[in-house]
Amino acid sequence: MTLKDIIAQSIRDNNGAIGFDAFMDLALYTPALGYYRRGETIFGEQGDFITAPETSDLFGYCMAKQCEPIISGGGNILEFGAGTGILAAQILFELARLDSLPRQYYILELSGQLQQKQKETISRVLPELIERVEWLSELPSDFSGVVIANEVLDAMPAKRVCYRKGEFFELTVAIEQDSFQWRAQDKPFNSPLTPLPSVCVEGYTTEVNQQALAWIDSLYQTMKDGLVLLVDYGMARSEYHHEQRTEGTLRCYYQHKASDNPFENIGQQDITTSVNFSDVAEQALDSGFTIAGYCTQAMFLISLGIDQYLLDEKDLERRSILAQQVKQLVLPSAMGESFKVLALTKKQPVKLDGFKEQNLVNKL
Ligand SMILES: C[S@@+](CC[C@H](N)C(=O)[O-])C[C@H]1O[C@@H](n2cnc3c(N)ncnc32)[C@H](O)[C@@H]1O
Q: 16 CA distance to ligand 1 centroid (A)?
C-alpha cells in the first residue's frame, strides 16, 4: 500500500473526512513511508531544509552554555526530535570543554531511521561520549535537568480552521476523484485553550496546535524539576492572528522550495506550521510551569556570547566561515527574528543568561 492509499483508507474509515492533524500525522510519521520515517536525507543541503544546528556548531555551543548551570547542579539533558544528532554532539562537546558533562543525555525520537542516524553522528564525532547517550521511547518519569526541543513543536500535527459568516469551522481532508481536498465541517470549531480572533475577513484561515499543548502538559506532569528550552519559528498570538495573515502559517518544504500545498509530494515533503507561542505559554502556565524567558533566536545567541566564539577563533579562514554561519543564525532576514526561544521552568530558580539582553515575555 502506498502512503496515499493509507491516508485514503483512513478517510474512508472515518466517514469521508479526517482532521488535518490526522492527515499531517500520517504524512509525516507513518512507519517506513512517512516523511520522517523513510530514512532518506532530509536535513542539510542535500535534503529539504536546514535547521540551526545544521547551520553552525555555534548554535549548539550556545545551547550548552545555557544548560551548564543546571547540569553542574546535577541535571541531565533530554532532547526531543534530535534530527541527525548534530545538536546533541555540539552540546556534549561544549559541555565537555566546560567540564560540565551530564551523566546522561537522553534522546526521545519517534523515527527509528533518525535514531540510527543520530547514533552514527554521535559515534563518529564523539565516540568517547556515546555511552552517555540513551534513546528513550517515552517520557521519563521524574526527569531532572534540561529539556530541549529545536524545531519540534512545528512538526507536531496541527488542525486547520477557517472563518465563515462569523464563526470558525475546522477544515478537514476529504478525497474526491482520487485527490485530497479541503472540506469544512458543518459544526463550528470550539477550542477554549486556543483562542481565535473574534472578527476577521471571510475565509480567514489559521492553525491550532492542540497536540503541542497536550505535549507541554505531559512534560510538566513527568518532570521533577528543570528547564525546558523550546526553539522554533513562530510568534505571539497578536502576530500569529494578524489580519493580513489570511492563509495561516502552513508550509511545506521539498528540496528547499516552500509551498502551501500539503496534498502534493506526500511523504516526500516536510509539512509544518508556525508555533503560536502565546498558546504554548498559556498552556505552560496552566500546567504549572514558570515562563522564564521569551526572545528572538538572535538575542538568545547574542546573550550567550556567540560573538565571543568568533573572536576566540584565531584562524582567519575558519573565522570568516563562522562569521557567515553566525549571520545565518542571527540576521533578521535569515533565522534571527523568525525563530524564537521560549524557556519554561519547574522548581528551577537559576537565572538564565540567554535572556540577559532581551526578554519579551510581556509580548506573549
Ligand atoms: C524539523 S525536525 C528537527 C530536527 C532537529 N531538532 C534539528 O533541529 O535539526 C523535527 C523533528 O521532531 C521530531 N518530532 C516530532 N514530534 C515529536 C514528538 N512528539 N516527540 C519527539 N520527537 C518529535 C521529528 O521526528 C523530527 O525528528
A: 30
What confidence tier does 42 reach under pLDDT thresholds 50, 70, 90?
Answer: confident
The predicted-structure confidence for 275-321, as pLDDT tens digits, reads as follows: 999 999 999 999 999 999 999 999 999 999 999 999 999 999 999 99
Rounded Cα distance, 170 and 188, in Å: 7
What's the mean pLDDT when you consider all of the chain?
A: 94
Quick one: angle between helices 57-71 and 316-330, nearest 10? Answer: 80
Cell numbers placing 140:
521519563
Check pocket membership of 51 for ligand 1, CB cut-off 6 A: yes
Residue the block writes with cell 502551501? 260
Domains of the chain from N-terminus onward = 1-347 (3.40.50.12710)
The Cα 363–Cα 165 span in angstroms is 30
Residue nearest to atom 26 of ligand 1 (CA): 81
In ligand 1, the atom with minimum distance to the C-alpha of 270 is 1
274 phi and psi, to 5 degrees?
A: -70, 160
HEC profile of 66-131: HHHHHHCCCCEEEEECCCCCHHHHHHHHHHHHCCCCCCCEEEECCCHHHHHHHHHHHHHHCHHHHH
Q: What is the pLDDT of residue 45?
A: 73
* Pocket of ligand 1 contains residue 107 by CB under 6 Å: no
DSSP-assigned letters across all residues of 218-253: HHHHHEEEEEEEEEEEEE-HHHHT-TT-TT-S-EEE
Q: Whose CA is nearest to atom 24 of ligand 1?
A: 81
Percent of the chain having pLDDT more than 90? 87
> Beta strand 133-136 with 205-208: parallel, antiparallel or unpaired?
unpaired
Ligand 1 centroid distance, CA of 115 (Å): 11
Residue for grid cell 562569521: 323
- The pTM score is 0.96
Query: Which amino acid type is present at position 301?
Result: L
Grid cell locating 270: 516536510
Residue where the block lists cell 500535527: 157
Q: Is the CB of 83 under 6 A from ligand 1?
A: yes
Cβ(335)–Cβ(328) under 8 Å?
yes
Separation of CA 127 and ligand 1 centre (Å): 23
Question: What integer pLDDT is reported at residue 139 of this predicted model?
Answer: 86
